[in-house]
Amino acid sequence: MSVIELNNINKYFGSGVSKVHVLHDINFSADRGELILVVGPSGSGKSTFLTIAGGLQTPTSGEVSVEGKSMAKLSTAQRDKLRLNQIGFVLQSYSLVPYLKVKEQFDFVNKVKRQGNLNQAELKELLVQLGIENLTNKFPGELSGGQTQRVAIARALFANPDIVLADEPTAALDSARVAEVGKLFKELAKTRDKAVVVVTHDVRLMEFADKTYQIMDGKMTQATNKQPAK
């Protein structure tokens, strides 16, 4: 059984003459141990797909299931608990708490999610992998865009979720850092048995993916990893 499935997902925004069909009959699944890319240009529906997959917004029609449980059949409290314990988000907005130092971002996670997070040795290893081990006493406002992005990735992975959903996680990174993040996500999927789903227009990540899907005008098709998606 796939850890996450989307079945016949449609999403509309607006109504009447301004009604827009953003996602068209999306079918998607991810298993543990997989790194999956969803590639496409800006405005193609990537971010909408990701937020629906993570239960941050609801589809107009269709069903999202995590570990065989339909999100639509869960109460609000149950959906919140599922997201907290099983889904890690790396969003474009980063969502770091501006008045907390980098090291305090992880303390904050521990207060919200009290069990199942990485231990201190594992966190230290993760910070070294991402090249941010010397930034722990800095505030988000003191970081560059690339540094902020890597801290956001570390915070999401610190919670040790079953599913990692990342929205353009390499947008502010140079090629060397892109390769490091690609390897990290790949290792996370394989060694920690996670499902990692990355939506991106960065074709440099394709060499690390087990599967690549292309989304264009809200329609999804499986792509080859041998040639970059256009």
Structural description of this entry:
The complex is composed of two ATP-binding proteins (HrtA), two transmembrane proteins (HrtB) and a solute-binding protein. It holds the Pfam family ABC_tran. Keywords: ATP-binding, Cell membrane, Membrane, Nucleotide-binding, Transport. This is Putative hemin import ATP-binding protein HrtA. The chain is α/β, with parallel strands linked by helices. It has one domain (4-223): P-loop containing nucleotide triphosphate hydrolases (Rossmann fold, 3-Layer(aba) Sandwich), CATH 3.40.50.300. The protein is built from six helices and ten strands; from the N terminus they run βββαββαβαααβαβββ. Strands 6-7-8-3-9-10 form a six-stranded mixed β-sheet. Helix 4 packs antiparallel against helix 5. The longest helix has 17 residues, at 175-191. The radius of gyration is 17 Å and the shape is globular. It starts with a strand and ends in a 7-residue tail after the last strand.
CATH superfamily: P-loop containing nucleotide triphosphate hydrolases
Query: What is the residue-mean pLDDT, rounded to a whole number?
Result: 90
State the helicity in percent bands.
Answer: 25-40%
Radius of gyration, whole Å: 17 Å
- Looking at the structure, what is the overall shape? globular
How many helices? The count is 6
Low-confidence stretches: none
CATH class: Alpha Beta
Total domains, how many?
A: 1
Main β-sheet, in a few words? 6 strands, mixed
The CATH topology assignment is Rossmann fold
The sequence of SSEs as H and E is EEEHEEHEHHHEHEEE
Beta-strand fraction estimate: 25-35%
- The oligomeric state is single chain
Structural category:
alpha/beta
GO molecular function, one term: transmembrane transporter activity
Domain ABC transporter: 4-229
Membrane topology: Peripheral membrane protein
Subunit structure: The complex is composed of two ATP-binding proteins (HrtA), two transmembrane proteins (HrtB) and a solute-binding protein.
